[in-house]
Amino acid sequence: MTGTATFVLHSHLPYCRLAGRWPHGEEWLHQAMLECYLPLIRSFRRLAGEVGGSLGVTLNMTPILTEQIGDPLMRDHFREYLQQHVDRARGDVVRFEGSGLRAKTASFHLARYQALQAFYEDEIHADPLAALRDLEASGHVEIASSAATHGYLPLLDNDDAVRFQIQTGVQSHVRNFGRKPQSFWLPECAYEPGLERFLDEAGIKVFFVETHLVTGGSARGKAAEPMVGPYGEPPRLPPIARRPDSLEAHGGTTFRPYWVGESSVAVLARNERTGRQVWSAEHGYPGDGVYREFHKKDSESGLHYWRATARDVDLSGKAEYDPEPASARAREHAEHFRDLVKGELELYEGGAQEPGSVVAAYDTELFGHWWLEGVEWLEQAIRLLARDQNVTLTTAAEVVRDDPPTARIDLPEGSWGSGGDHRVWLNDDTQWTWPEIYARQRRAETLLRVSTPATRQLARELLLLQASDWQFLMTTGQAHDYAVERFNAHCARFDALAQAIGTNRADVDGLVAELGALDNPFPDINPLLYSQALEGAQAGR
After folding, report:
1. Residue 1 in domain
2. Is 382 exposed, middle or buried (0-12, 13-18, 19+ CB in 10 A)?
3. Residue 272 has what pLDDT?
4. Which positions are annotated as active-site residues?
C-alpha cells in the first residue's frame, strides 16, 4: 500500500436570502447551485454506482450555506433562475443556428441546463440535502461542518461567542444531515491556540488548517524521517518548484494527522503540491487554453462562448470555445493528477518508511463555476484513483480512525489568507467592525439567558453580523459597499431587537416577526448555549 488520498471540498457562501439578487445577493447561491453543487452531487451519485466504497470526498457544507439550500423561498427562487438559463440557452440555439462552433456551444449549454433541471426536479426531487444525506449514509462521502455563519473565530475574542458559533453550527448540521459531524472546517482556516478545546467539546474528531500551520508547527512524539530522493514529475505539465513537505527540525508534515495540543482532536493540512497544481496561476489546470473563459460573456444571453486561449490574450482576443477538446483535456488532467497523487505518496513512503495521506483541499465553488470542466475532472480523477491498487480513497474522519496520529503538535496562529495571518480580516478597511462586534457580544451576555422568540431572533442576528464574509468582501473590494451595508444592517437589527427586549416594549413580537421574515436560519437555535451561566459547552451536548 502506498497511501491514502482524500478530496476536501469547502462549500461556503455568505447569507444572502432576500438581500438582493444581482450583482450581489441571492444570485451567488443560485450560480453555485446550478454550476457547482448540482453537477457535483450528480457526479457523486454516478460514481457511487461504480465504486463500492468511499469516493474519498470530505464535503464541508457550512451551516449557513446548508440553511439557505434548504430554505423553501430560496428553492423557489432557484427554480426561476434555472428556468431563465434554460430559456436563454434555447434562445441562443435559435439565434446561432448555422453559425458553426457558436451553434454547437449553444446546444451544449442547453443540454446541460436541461439535464440539471431534470436531475433537480425528477431525480433528487428539489432536495439536494437529502441527496447528500444518502451519499453519506451509503459510505461514499463524508459531510463536514463549520461554524454557524463562518465567523472568524480567532478575532471574536470571546469564549462564549466562539463556542456559540461552533455549537450552533453542529446543531444545524445534525438537523439537516441527521448525524453529528466528525470533521470541521475552521472558517478561513483561521486558528489560534486553544480552539481545539471547543471542537473537542462539540465532539469533533478532526479539523483542517493551511499547510504552513502544520509545517511551521512544533511536533512532539514519533516523527517521520525527511523525504529523500528525486521527485518523478508526471508527463505533460511543467514541474512546479516546491519545498519538500516533510518533518523538518521542528515542523510537521501534511502527510500525517496530529493530535493538537493536549486534546483528543486531530488536525489535517492541505497537501501543498496538489493544491498548487489546481491553484497555480502559471501551471494550474484551470488556466489551460482550451477550457472555457469565465470572464467573457455573450452580451445578450450572458452565456459563455469563448475559451481561455492564453494568459497574455485579453478578453477581446479570446478564441471560441469548443466543449469537446475541453472535455478531453479534463480527462488528461485527471490522469496527470492521479500520477501526481501517487508520486507524492511514493515520495513520502520512501523517506518516512510508512504510508501517508494526501489531503487535496479546494473551494467547492471552483468546480463548475470558475472552472467549468472541473466537475468532469474531479469525477474522472476519483474514478482513476479508485481503480488504482496503490491508493486508497478515504475521508478525513477515516484517516484519523484507521491510521490515528502517533504524535502531537502545537500549531501557531494563522489562516489561509494573505501573509498567513489575520490581515485580510483585520486591517485599516475593517478595523472599525470589530469593536461593533464586541459591543454586541457583551450585550448578548446579558440578554441571551432565556429562550424566547425574541432572544432566538437576537441570537440569529448576532451570528449573522459575526460572519467573516463582510470583512473579506470589504478587503478584497469584490463587494465593498454591499458588505458594509449588510454588516450595518445586521448590527441595526440586533440593536433594535436588543432595545425592545431590554425595555419590554409592547411591539417586540411584531419586530420579531418582521426580522424573522428576513433572517430565518437555524430554526432550532438555542440562545442558552451562549451563556456560561448555563454550563456553556455542556448545555450544547
Report:
1. no
2. buried
3. 92
4. 188, 363
